[in-house]
Write a structure and sequence with these properties.
Length: 471
């Protein structure tokens, strides 16, 4: 393991380590590991004041064993070809783990979104999509972007509109991008999906007494002390569902710094305070930490890095007090830190599994777009009627009259959001157990990250073997 490995080397080292536990042919493994397409473009953009600026952008398609490819678009200053390839590879393994039938991809534009106006960001996004269309790097059957750091539903609506304009009459055009606003073909529950998935997955992990005992933890999330780094899309919703699930949020880190309160921080109060002052520092009852990264070392049970890659490093890993690190962000733990945490008996729940909720619900959105009908629309009323008739029959047999409130609660037909959340819960719970089974099978020789990677490699390898080689 080289010190200071790049993010791509970090991902590939994790792959190689796991590959050593599989029986696959070396060339097949090399083929799985290699990024299949890498697109780089630079294009000029006119700023509002008339200045011209040259933008640099990428799209990496890591695997074509299933199509379309899938992965977010990141707007950040430090993006490069290495990073998009690393993130695209993680997407391949992630999709395999949660049985989402996509290859991995990732896109990025090098910019700080805070330095541009909304009009400028729109022009940049649309020109990027134009370049992707020109090179066949976007389309409902080719490659389907989604948000990542620095982008959200607003940018995805621009992506969808630009693609649709350039492909008039393409019936499935809206399936070219996911996490769109609901009114633009998006799906209810997508915005919350990654954070909600982090919650469902962690709840499953901590429900198993056999695994919690060696960590000195009881089962369940109730009362668990949690620290979250990054209160963006993923971190905020993870925090919200953990708090609703009974966990105590004892520390937050954000761009402006870090705060802590061992008795617990009320998430919504912190967010309201932060909105008003553009910073949560000096939040009443909380202590300001000297440096924002000090939050990672707070006394807690669960640490959730939900900001960026390479936050838990060889430098801070020896001082991390959490018993479980839940990788809500992509690649937040360096391989050196991983080794230190393993020695210190800290469980790391890997990104490839735990933050897969976003792509899972993106898959549901894509299916909805291809089906051209909202989930639940056909059956909601029918279910309601069927349950109502059943209750009526029960009343006839038992002589008991249900109250209106009971009838409403029991006969409620599933809405789109109910179905999305239920599909997400099922996915996260059932994805964990095969990973855990490999972890147990290897009896201390691998951690959960390697177990997840072994499973992902097995699934992708099977697909490549069955497909054969063209021509
Ligand atoms: P986001 O831009 O909405 O949020 C990131 C937050 O982290 C921002 O609020 C930012 O201010 C904060 N931040 C940045 N650097 C920080 C630091 N050093 N310390 C503390 N806070 C810091 O992005 P997001 O969509 O929430 O993504 C976060 C992570 O989750 C990324 O690694 C991303 O790849 C991963 N991820 C996102 C999704 C998704 O659906 N959005 C899905 C899977 C994985």
């Amino acid at each position: 393991m080289s010190v200071g490995a790049s993010f791509l080397e970090q991902v590939n080292q994790a792959f190689d380590r796991a590959a050593g536990f599989t029986q696959h042919d070396a060339t097949l493994l090399a083929n799985i590991k290699a990024c299949k397409n890498l697109f780089y473009t630079s294009f000029p953009v006119k700023r509002d004041d008339g200045r011209i600026e040259v933008m640099h952008a990428w799209r990496a398609e890591h695997s074509h064993h299933k199509l379309p490819c899938k992965g977010g678009i990141r707007f950040a200053l430090d993006v490069d070809a290495d990073e998009v390839q690393a993130l695209a590879a993680l997407m391949t393994y992630k999709c395999a783990l949660v049985d989402v039938p996509f290859g991995g991809a990732k896109g990025a534009i090098r910019l700080n979104p805070k330095s541009y106006t909304t009009d400028e960001l729109e022009r940049i996004t649309r020109r990027y999509v134009f370049e992707l269309v020109r090179k066949n790097f976007i389309g409902p059957g080719l490659d389907v972007p989604a948000p990542d750091v620095g982008t959200g539903p607003r940018e995805m609506a621009w992506v969808a509109d630009t693609y649709t304009q350039l492909r008039p009459g393409e019936l499935d055009a809206l399936g070219c991008v996911t996490a769109k606003p609901v009114s633009q073909g998006g799906i209810r529950g997508r915005t919350e999906a990654t954070g909600r998935g982090v919650f469902f997955g962690t709840r499953e992990v901590v429900s198993l007494a056999e695994d919690m005992k060696p960590l000195g933890l009881s089962t369940g999330l109730e009362g668990k002390r949690v620290v979250i780094q990054g209160l963006g899309n993923v971190g905020y919703f993870a925090a919200k569902f953990f708090q609703e699930g009974g966990a105590v949020l004892v520390g937050f880190a954000e761009a402006e710094g870090a705060i802590a309160n061992p008795k617990g921080l009320d998430l919504e109060k912190v967010m309201a305070y932060r909105r008003e002052r553009r910073s949560f520092m000096d939040f009443p009852g909380a202590a300001n930490l000297a440096r924002r990264e000090d939050a990672l070392e707070l006394d807690c049970d669960i640490l959730i890095p939900a900001a960026l890659e390479r936050q838990v490093t060889a430098d801070n890993a020896p001082r991390i007090k959490a018993k479980i690190v839940v990788e809500a962000a992509n690649g937040p733990t360096t391989p050196e830190a991983d080794a230190i945490l393993a020695r210190r008996n800290v469980m790391v729940v890997p990104d490839t599994f735990i933050n897969a909720g976003g792509v899972t619900v993106s898959y549901f959105e894509w299916v909805k777009n291809l089906g051209h009908v909202r989930f639940g629309r056909m059956q909601k009323r029918f279910e309601q009627g069927a349950y109502g008739r059943l209750l009526h029959a029960v009343e006839g047999v038992t002589g008991r009259q249900f109250t209106n409130e009971e009838i409403e609660r029991i006969t409620h037909g599933a809405s789109e959001e109910d179905l999305v959340n239920s599909g997400l819960e099922e996915t996260m719970i059932s994805a964990y157990h095969p990973i855990r089974a490999i972890w147990k099978r290897e009896q201390g020789k691998v951690d959960l990250r390697t177990a997840a990677m072994i499973l992902a490699i097995d699934k992708v390898a099977l697909s490549y073997e069955q497909l054969g080689i063209f021509p």
